[in-house]
Amino acid sequence: MSDDPLTLDALLALEQRGWESLTRHEGGRFYGALMTADAVMILVNGMVLDRETIAATLDDSPAWSTFTLEDARLVSTGQASAALVYRATAARDGEDEPFVALMSSHYTLVDGETALMLYQQTTVTH
Prior knowledge:
Layout: H1 8-22, H2 27-34, E1 35-42, E2 48-50, H3 51-57, E3 66-78, E4 81-91, E5 99-110, E6 113-123
Helix pairs in contact: 1-2, 2-3
């Protein structure tokens, strides 16, 4: 087993933990700690949120009740960085249609620790 924190398996496990935090209203704490100081999240609704906004507001967002992550692949972006691209399907209680989008999470190493520097969602139409 590799100790490289930027492998497909390692980053997919990290994404899984992130999504799990969103089922427990803990996303703000999780992503606030994971994101670099200048990181942003670009959401399908056109919002661009910085780490401070994510940390302050994501815990209050409606929780996901279920989610699946599929078709993950790793894109090397440098010696100490990589992007994870995957398809997510998630549902919230009381909503008729699931949320389906392609995700891109770009990670880098900061003092040897994995940190999220850019996250983007792209809607998938049915």
